[in-house]
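Methods, example record. To illustrate the input and output format used throughout this study, we show the complete record for GTP 3',8-cyclase. The sequence lines were provided to the predictor; the line carrying structure tokens was produced by it.
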Amino acid sequence: MLYDNHNRPITYVRLAVTDRCNLRCFYCMPEEGIKYLPKQALLTYEEIERLIKLLASMGVSKVRLTGGEPFVRNDLMELMSRIVETPGIKDVHLTTNGVLTAPHIPAMKKMGIASVNLSLDTLDKGRFHTITRRDEFDAVMNTYHQLIAHGIPTKINTVVMEGKNIEDIIPLVELTKNHPVDVRFIEEMPFNGEGTHYPVLTWTHKKILEYIQWHYPTLDKLKDAAHSTSYNYAVPGHKGTVGIIAAFSRTFCGTCNRIRVTAQGTLKTCLYDDGVLDIRKMMRDGCTDDELRSALSRAFNQRPADGFEAESNRKNHRPAHESMSTIGG
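The corresponding predicted structure is encoded as:
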């Protein structure tokens, strides 16, 4: 097992394969988009495979591929297949916006992808266009129904935004009535690439829960899994569950078992840090696996206690001027 300096196990890596995205979501990037990295600045698939094999040898067993939108990068399915076959990797997951995903779902099922997180902030086509600044609602809903039909465990990730999608909270909870889906409501984070949207975050995890409980007084609290980022609930009689993620309040840091690697190969031991190791540079400078393993271990042993400490240690720009598309969603 691999542990950090706070005795938290590190078993899970979230790896962005691209910073590019085919949507322009309000909470992620400005309407005009962001300046994307040139192709040569991204980790190659060969570099990604090398890194995953090395992390697996150190104790990481779970991989989540993210972006940007992963499917805008060519040959993603081939990469996923190779990661699934990596010794030591037990579960491979995917986070996607669903625009390009549907045609790949049968192959993903056959491959054994453990679960898919589908970003979906509204069930209203007009509000979808307002939030994402793109007209792709039908494609995303087709992906959702295909995931359910193929029996791939599915989580919906919904960022709760004041003045944008509050009226969607209850319709999204209603999805759990007839579908075995986990709908997770996430506090809006400051990583939108253009500056803070609100002086104060009004829709905290507590307010989201109170709002749902007002509509569903019999809402049951479930036992949260080890290292869960969400507080989990169920409406009696519903097939699915409801989760609330305190992403801005950062109440789950004490059990965090995850690290992030950005598309350009920067290690983040916390979402809120500004990068602690340039893996791409080390690889391209010719480092050995032992040298890279040692550098990773040093980074894990200097991990901040929580997201607030990580944010206070930042040397570069404030979080609000980063985009989740660059960080890895």
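Annotations derived from this record:
The chain has a mean pLDDT of 93.
The longest strand covers residues 154-160.
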